[in-house]
Amino acid sequence: MRSGRTESGLIVVGTSHFQYGIQKHNDAAKGTLMRFQSTIFLLLVLCSACARPPEAQHDQVSFLDNNHHVLATVAVEIADTHAKQTRGLMGRRLPDDDRHGMLFVFENAAPRVFWMHNTPGPLDMIFMDESGRVLNIVENAAPYSRQHHASHGPARYVVEVPGGFAARHRILPGTRMGF
């Protein structure tokens, strides 16, 4: 029956045409949804391809004796965000020369604790107070160690350099760091 009334007075439309209309509508909706999903996927792929990781900031720091003579100067990568500080030098090795390191800059001076988890080479950790005065030095911290190394007082800055750096350049507690 194509259309008509039932005994109860309801109008009936031919079911085969009605079902075909619904199926046709569903197919169109599925096609639109798939095109939308494909467009979103393509945009995500393009955006991720264009996105570059933020470039590391670099600067130089010098270590000065009490007479303000330069003991050593190091090109440092600056870790001044929580993400950079958490990552530190994990998974990376500093060059074996004494010209490279990482400077951790914290918002305030506070007790600091570092470890060498996933860090492949030995490092010296130089903890400094708010004025840049060396508080203490952890020399040749063992690679991949989970041992905690703490500052001897509130530290605002920490410099990580290749192991043995502090001894080679006579950097001691009380030495000052200059930017």
Automatic annotation (TrEMBL):
Organism: Thermithiobacillus plumbiphilus
Pfam families attached to this UniProt entry: DUF192
Name recorded for this polypeptide: DUF192 domain-containing protein
Highest taxon, organism lineage: Bacteria
Taxonomic lineage from the root: Bacteria, Pseudomonadati, Pseudomonadota, Acidithiobacillia, Acidithiobacillales
Transmembrane parts of this sequence: none
